[in-house]
Amino acid sequence: MLTALQHLAVVAGLVALYYLIPLGDGSSVARLGVAAALFMLGVLVLVWVFGRHTIAVAHHDKKARLRTLLLIVYVVTIFFALGYLMVATIDPAQFAGLRTRTDALYFTVSTIATVGFGDVHAVGQLARALVATQIIFDLVILASLVGAYRAAMIREDR
């Protein structure tokens, strides 16, 4: 069971890792292909892990399910920020306003929060497909978080 301090440490560690991962200049088409393949593999792994773990803990520990979903939100945030950054590094025309790691993280968080200020947005087809993938993933996670929270609170009331 992770405490609030441990969750904060996980978030801080993920953000530090995000800013420290070297990406290079992204000028190679081969690099884009490898990055895209690794990113898609990562999405599939996240979906598989998310599905298996959520099902495994759903019936036994409702609060554990909620904590797991929160951890997934943290990881997915960094994961998509890296994806956006890789796409923008290799082809800057894919995004308007996305130039730095902070821009990518900001865009990811505003997409998760469904705020969408419009200062950073997808322009190219690859970027739009990536954003659509994140939105679908976020909707599934949000629905799961609401369900897990509700289940944990109902169980606590009994």
Automatic annotation (TrEMBL):
<feature type="transmembrane region" description="Helical">
    <location>
        <begin position="30"/>
        <end position="50"/>
    </location>
</feature>
<keyword id="KW-0812">Transmembrane</keyword>
<feature type="transmembrane region" description="Helical">
    <location>
        <begin position="7"/>
        <end position="24"/>
    </location>
</feature>
<feature type="domain" description="Potassium channel">
    <location>
        <begin position="75"/>
        <end position="150"/>
    </location>
</feature>
<keyword id="KW-1133">Transmembrane helix</keyword>
<feature type="transmembrane region" description="Helical">
    <location>
        <begin position="71"/>
        <end position="90"/>
    </location>
</feature>
<protein>
    <recommendedName>
        <fullName>Potassium channel domain-containing protein</fullName>
    </recommendedName>
</protein>
<keyword id="KW-0472">Membrane</keyword>
<dbReference type="Pfam" id="PF07885">
    <property type="entry name" value="Ion_trans_2"/>
</dbReference>
<feature type="transmembrane region" description="Helical">
    <location>
        <begin position="126"/>
        <end position="149"/>
    </location>
</feature>
<dbReference type="InterPro" id="IPR013099">
    <property type="entry name" value="K_chnl_dom"/>
</dbReference>
